[in-house]
Amino acid sequence: MPSAWIGMAAGDRTFIDTNILLYAHDASAAAKQPVARAVLDRLWAERAGTLSTQVLQEFYYVATRKLSPPVSRTEARQVIDTYSAWPTVILDPALILAATRLEEEEQLSFWDALIVEAARLSGATRLLTEDMQHGRVLGGVQIVNPFAPEPQAESGAAAAGDAGRGSGPRARCAPEDA
Predict the structure, then answer these.
(1) DSSP code of residue 16
(2) Residues 38-66: pLDDT tens digits?
(3) What is the rounded average pLDDT of the residues 140-147?
(4) How many structural domains is the chain composed of?
(5) Residue 159 lies in a domain
(6) Which of 16, 136, 143, 170 would be 20's cystine partner, CB 3.0–4.6 Å?
(7) DSSP annotation of 125
(8) CA–CA gap between residue 106 and residue 121 (Å, rounded)
(9) Is residue 176 one of the residues assigned to a domain?
(10) What is the end-to-end Cα distance of the chain in Å, rounded?
């Protein structure tokens, strides 16, 4: 796990993107599943996790339709019920409008901007995702990819690259599915 994750201060709130939740329940994600489970276990232990209704919706859709093997609908509902114990940002028109501005200002996809705005609204200092640039700070929220390798002595351009863009749940859902 990146040192930014390991070195988090106690009491900091961390927002999880859908891909973290999916990998924890994806039997085919042999390398990422233990990392995702460890991240979620730590957030449970520290009572530091938060998410949004968007994360729960995307989880249900992708887990029951796109994973191989898919998660049963019953199990997916149980996961949603379990994570509903976390502080959950409910999407509303003001949040959607804020995301449209962030999308335009920062050149993000609308769905990623919505995740960032929900994380900001939740009071999170970190957003765990593999779908955005590791280390970038948006709206006071630092993007942390828990699957990213520890930084080596690489060039600044290589280190600043977009980590994992296009592999997350929004990439697995066609735009008409959203």
Answers:
(1) E
(2) 999 999 999 999 999 999 999 999 999 99
(3) 95
(4) 1
(5) yes
(6) 16
(7) S
(8) 17
(9) no
(10) 30
